[in-house]
């Protein structure tokens, strides 16, 4: 029978083997970066509908149209957010539940920004 015990010294014990606790900062950084990426997609989608100049600037491939720029910009924002957040939280005991709550709010805002009824309200 396996037993898990928590030890106050920052380690956990499982069947007599001691495992050091690791900070949850890198996990929280990845979760938050996903939320930032989703929000970036909503913002870029809404901005491209609001500004024809911005929409034309995102047309990096004529076969795909402005969607090519939207996705590439969103991925670059997501990667940059992940790198920055990882560097900030890599050795910190950031609460994963809090990061998930913030990320879900950001994802929700990003999804709203991609709904046609929302972004068409900003169209010219």
Structure characterization notes:
With 124 residues, the protein is mainly alpha-helical. It has one domain. It is built from 5 helices and 3 strands; from the N terminus they run βββααααα. It has helices spanning 25-50, 52-57, 66-89, 96-113, 116-119; strands at residues 4-7, 11-14, 17-20. The chain has a 3-stranded antiparallel β-sheet with strand order 1-2-3, with no helix packed on it. Strand 2 and strand 3 form a beta hairpin. Helix 1 (25-50) runs antiparallel to helix 3 (66-89) and helix 1 (25-50) packs parallel to helix 4. The chain is elongated, with a radius of gyration of 20 Å. The mean pLDDT is 87. The chain crosses the membrane at residues 27-47, 67-88, 100-122. Keywords: Membrane, Transmembrane, Transmembrane helix.
Uncertain runs with pLDDT below 50, 5 residues or more? none
CA-based gyration radius: 20 Å
Mean pLDDT: 87
Sketch the major β-sheet.
3 strands, antiparallel
Count up the helices: 5
Q: What structural category arises from helix and sheet content?
A: mainly alpha
Distance, first to last CA: 67 Å
Number of strands: 3
How many distinct domains?
Answer: 1
Please give the oligomerization state of what you see.
single chain
Helix content: 55-70%
- The gross shape turns out to be elongated
Tell me the fraction of residues in β-strands, as a range.
Answer: 5-15%
Helix-strand sequence: EEEHHHHH
The neighbouring-strand order within the major sheet is 1-2-3
């Amino acid at each position: 029978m396996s037993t898990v015990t928590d030890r106050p010294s920052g380690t956990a014990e499982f069947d007599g083997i001691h495992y050091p606790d690791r900070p949850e900062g890198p996990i929280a950084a990845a979760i938050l970066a996903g939320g930032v990426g989703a929000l970036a997609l909503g913002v870029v989608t809404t901005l491209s509908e609001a500004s024809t100049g911005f929409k034309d600037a995102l047309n990096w491939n004529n076969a795909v149209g402005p969607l090519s720029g939207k996705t590439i910009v969103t991925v670059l924002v997501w990667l940059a957010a992940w790198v920055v957040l990882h560097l900030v939280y890599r050795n910190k005991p950031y609460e994963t539940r809090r990061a998930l709550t913030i990320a879900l709010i950001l994802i929700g805002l990003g999804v709203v920004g991609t709904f046609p009824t929302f972004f068409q309200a900003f169209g010219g």
